[in-house]
Specification:
Helix content is about 45%, strand content about 15%. The protein is of the alpha/beta class. The mean pLDDT is about 100. The chain binds the ligand O=c1ccn([C@@H]2O[C@H](COP(=O)(O)O)[C@@H](O)[C@H]2O)c(=O)[nH]1. The ligand O=c1ccn([C@@H]2O[C@H](COP(=O)(O)O)[C@@H](O)[C@H]2O)c(=O)[nH]1 binds near residues 10, 123, 182 and 212.
Length: about 240
């Protein structure tokens, strides 16, 4: 895998033409495109195929969170779309996670299987919000480790967490457990609604598998150059 393959671009845009233009512009300088709630609700599931037709791989970031049967059935549908990865909230519980793992295994028997990631503590939440809004007294780091271990026990391939927790997840869950981190901000770019952030270089130095970047690329005057700059920073971090 080349270092550029570890960059996932979040296609958080509202116009289909603009999204497809970005796919054409960026597919050779990143590894995957993330389709989240905004583009999926606007463009629908056929948008996944449109990206795949242009040579792009897809991370479907719909963060399923429901009862076990519902999430298992949604997971089957996601797997049928041929996405590389999709995710579920670990807060949905172990029965839910085991149900979706089993459903995807059945659905894709003998074929390449979509990786299932568990969403830990959203990168937009800091320690105060975790306690005040969610009633969780652990620190974000402790909660992420607790959930990451649970996700691993249930058979998930990895987790979505903030770059601040990368090394602790590695330590507790091992080298083969995937770590995908949004909350990435090149130096000088505003954090916006993200609370637990770091630079692309720091994330790579901490041992991340994939970084997810949206606004720092989408809002750049030259999105391709912004993506290339991020890849260069990642390269320099592993030298
Ligand atoms: O904890 C999470 C989980 C998912 N996201 C998603 O990642 C991108 C980040 O976009 P930026 O513009 O680079 O902040 C966005 O699509 C989120 O829905 C996350 O940020 N944090």
């Amino acid at each position: 895998m080349q270092i550029k393959d570890r960059l996932i671009v979040a296609l958080d845009v509202t116009e289909r033409e603009k999204a497809l233009e970005l796919v054409e512009m960026l597919h050779d300088c990143c590894g995957m495109f993330k389709i989240g709630l905004e583009p999926f609700c606007i463009f629908g599931p056929t948008f996944v195929e449109e990206i795949q037709d242009r040579g792009g791989k897809v991370f479907l970031d719909l963060k399923f969170h429901d009862i076990p049967r519902t999430v298992a059935q949604a997971g089957r549908a996601a797997a049928r779309l041929g996405v590389e990865m999709f995710n579920v909230h670990i807060a949905g519980g172990s029965e839910m996670m085991k149900a979706v793992v089993e459903a995807v295994r059945e659905e894709t028997a003998g074929k390449k299987q979509a990786k299932i990631l568990g969403v830990t503590v959203l990168t937009s939440l800091g320690a105060d919000e975790l306690t005040r809004d969610l009633g969780i007294d652990r620190s974000p780091l402790e909660q992420v480790i607790f959930w990451a271990q649970e996700a691993k026990e249930c058979g998930l391939s990895g987790v979505v967490a903030s770059p601040r927790e990368i090394s602790a997840i590695r330590e507790h869950c091992g080298r083969d457990f995937l770590i995908v981190t949004p909350g990435i901000r090149p130096a000088g770019f505003e954090s916006g609604d993200q609370k637990r952030i770091s630079t692309p270089g720091d994330a790579v130095r901490s041992g991340v598998d994939y970084i997810v970047v949206g606004r720092p690329i989408l809002q750049a005057q030259d999105p391709r150059q912004a993506a290339l700059d991020i890849v260069r920073e990642m390269e320099e971090a592993i030298r």
